[in-house]
Amino acid sequence: MTIEEFGRRLRAGGITSAQATEECLTRIDADNPRLNAFILVMAEEARRHAHEADRELAAGRDRGPLHGVPVSLKDIVDVRGVPTTAASRVRDGHVAERDAPVVAHLRQAGAVIIGKTNLHEFAFGTTNEESAFGPARNPHDPSRSPGGSSGGSAASVAAGMALASIGTDTGGSIRIPAAACGIVGLKPSLGEVSTDGVVPLSRTMDHVGPLAQSVTDACLVYHALLGDAHAMPPVPMPLHGLRLAVPRKYFCDLLDDDVSARFEAALDRLRGAGVHVDEIAIQHAADVAPVYLHIVLADAAAYHASTLETMPDRYSPNVRTRLEMGRYLLAEDYVRALAGRDVLKREVDAALAQHDTLILPSLPIPAPPIGASSVPVGKTTEPVRNVMLRLTQPFNVTGHPAIAIPSGQTSTGLPTSVQLVGCRAQTDALLKVAVACEPHIMSAASPPRSGKVGG
Amino acid sequence: MTVESWLKAATADAERLGLPELKSALESLARATTALRAADFNEHATGSSSRQSSVVSRQSAVGSPQSSDSSRRS
To answer: Considering A126, A263, A413, B10, which has the largest number of Cβ atoms within 10 A of its Cβ?
Structure first.
């Protein structure tokens, strides 16, 4: 059940927030032992808030589309009175003193916070394997990663444990798990959604955004995060006259065969619906990995320097190694990376000057097996982390808004995903294109969403 | 500081701190740094950019930060 469907039923008297919340809690009880999506389930508080939401609605107070909607939060976002673990033992004993602004906005919008979800430790990884609480697992195949770092968030939505979730995205940490779990993930434009009260990975590339079951739901949650509780669903752009650009070089050079086939099929369906699709090039795309690495490592090292000295053994070994690496970077190389960032921003801006959005795959591979350090991609074998970041990190470097939309499934039944990228500071315009394209991107063979909350 | 000398110093420091597992990570970072320095958006005090030499630098850099660094210094 999407947020949109829930809202219709709620206002028609066909369901209550208390019922929807109870169904999510029942599903958490049934599936969380298998999926490990939640670090903290806030059952009693959620029940209380759901009943309050029902009482308010009965009394004529409607807070908007998120009224009474059960939502999960990545456990990197502060909720007053409960720990923000960041999936790390480094945070042992922490209790948040106040709600992050995005949580306050969700509460004002009437959302029911159902719990806090698992993640890759300190959001510094793409698989969710390195967590003090054990790995989260993919609802489509629990032997596989749900992606990361917001893996628990994606699993919670895909498995029907919440109607939407809030994640963070520094190199793809919303879009990667959304793609791996077959749901929608939106990284808004850089700086639009507050990151206060959110444990940082890179203060210059962190984004907060929604994981949801549809583009419309993602839009409604995105607006709630901004403090706009009464937003309307996005109005689809007419498909005829829409101009999309495929940056084929680099972005389509290294793809799993099924991912590539689903992407080309989506392009064919869009063309068939009247969309104009051009091919363009982003000249320095291949430079993005070193640019990203030098920025994220330096930013992360600054935040973790003190605890790397005082409690290094509390980090997972691989996360600690990545953080320690950042302490050796030279300032001159950080400045070079910033120069590269400016070049990439300008090139993506230029690519979008004549187009409504870019269109490319979200994730080059289907969800990898838990424990894999490398995966086959076409005729080569690639390190899991590098290949998972490849198509998403460019837009953390540049700050452009981007959304992952399910596009079908592989021959083994794992989700595939297509990414749309819009102009900077124009997330709403991106969402209007995305909602128009969504039915054409999703093939008839798209995997069923696991979530069955509310039937 | 050249990438070669940076890697030597960083590796020695990691070993001094009892973090030998950092060595391969630092070698990987050295390859990324070499690629970053070879990118043609870098400007130089001579007024030139890396554009002219980037192809040669990258070919030698990926497998060996040391050789790339030496070529840039020459």
So the answer is: A126
pLDDT, tens digit (0-9, with 9 covering 90-100), for A39-94: 999 999 999 999 999 999 999 999 999 999 999 999 999 999 999 999 999 999 99
Question: Cβ of B36 and A333 within 8 Å?
Answer: yes
**Which of A290, A324, A329 lies nearest to residue B22, judging by beta carbons?**
A324
User: What's the whole-number average pLDDT of chain A?
Assistant: 96
Long-range contacts: B58-66, Cβ < 8 Å, 24+? B61/B31, B61/B34, B61/B35, B62/B31, B62/B34, B62/B35, B63/B31, B65/B3, B65/B4, B65/B7, B65/B27, B65/B30, B65/B31, B65/B33, B65/B34, B66/B3, B66/B4, B66/B7
Supply the ipTM of this predicted assembly: 0.92
Q: What is the pTM of this model?
A: 0.94
Q: Is A315 exposed, middle or buried (0-12, 13-18, 19+ CB in 10 A)?
A: buried
Instruction: Examine the pLDDT at B53 and tell me if it is beyond 60.
Output: no
Instruction: Check if A173 is active-site.
Output: yes
- For residues B74 and B71, give the distance between their C-alpha atoms in angstroms, rounded to a whole number: 5
The amino acid that residue A313 corresponds to is D
User: Is a pLDDT exceeding 70 seen at residue B5?
Assistant: yes
Q: CA A95 to CA A99: how far, in whole Å?
A: 11
Cα separation, A381 vs A371, in Å, equals 15
Check residue A313 and report its DSSP letter. Answer: G
DSSP run (H or E) holding A264: helix A257-272
